[in-house]
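wait is this the right file?? whatever heres the structure
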C-alpha cells in the first residue's frame, strides 16, 4: 500500500511539473509596448504596412522596401503594423509571436535579433485569394550594412522619382 501511495505522489508531482513547464513553453516573448521594457536602447521604429498581398516597410530615413525587412543585429526593433485593406497577420516565428495589421488601427511588434541571418515569415490570416503567397523575410545584418541598405534604398527611390519627373518635363509621359 505504501508503494502505491509513493507511486501516486510521484505521478502527481510529474503531472504538476509537466503542466508548469508546458505552459511556460507556450509563452510568447513580450511584444508591443510591454516588450520595450527589455530594450537596451531606444527602439528602431519601422512601419510595416500589410496590403493585398505583400508587406511594405517604411524606414526612418523615408526609404522603403517591399517583402524584405532589413534590420541591424543587437537592436530592438518596433514595427508599427497597419493595413490598407483587410486584416493581415505579421508572423516571423523565429523572432516574435503573431500580430495583426488591422485597417484603421496600429498594432506593435517588438523584437530583437541577436544573430545575423535571414528569418522567414508567412501569412497567418486568410486575407483573400492570394494570402498564401503573402510572405516576408527579415534580414538581420550588421549596423553598418543596415545603414548602407537604407541609404541605397533612399538613393534608388530618389533616382527613380527624378527619372519620372524628367520624362514628364520632356513630354514623354503625359
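ok assuming it is, sequence goes like this
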Amino acid at each position: 500500500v505504501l508503494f502505491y501511495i509513493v507511486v501516486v505522489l510521484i505521478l502527481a508531482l510529474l503531472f504538476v511539473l509537466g503542466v508548469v513547464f508546458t505552459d511556460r513553453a507556450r509563452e510568447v516573448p513580450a511584444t508591443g509596448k510591454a516588450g520595450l521594457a527589455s530594450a537596451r536602447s531606444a527602439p528602431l521604429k519601422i512601419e510595416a504596412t500589410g496590403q493585398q498581398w505583400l508587406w511594405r516597410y517604411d524606414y526612418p530615413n523615408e526609404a522603403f522596401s517591399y517583402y524584405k525587412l532589413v534590420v541591424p543585429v543587437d537592436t530592438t526593433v518596433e514595427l508599427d503594423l497597419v493595413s490598407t485593406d483587410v486584416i493581415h497577420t505579421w508572423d516571423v516565428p523565429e523572432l516574435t509571436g503573431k500580430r495583426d495589421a488591422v485597417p484603421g488601427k496600429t498594432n506593435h511588434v517588438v523584437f530583437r535579433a541577436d544573430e545575423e541571418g535571414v528569418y522567414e515569415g508567412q501569412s497567418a490570416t486568410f486575407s483573400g485569394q492570394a494570402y498564401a503567397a503573402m510572405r516576408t523575410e527579415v534580414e538581420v545584418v550588421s549596423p553598418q550594412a543596415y545603414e548602407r541598405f537604407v541609404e541605397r534604398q533612399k538613393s534608388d527611390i530618389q533616382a527613380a522619382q527624378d527619372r519620372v519627373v524628367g520624362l514628364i518635363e520632356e513630354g514623354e509621359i503625359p
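The radius of gyration is 23 Å. so i think its the right one actually
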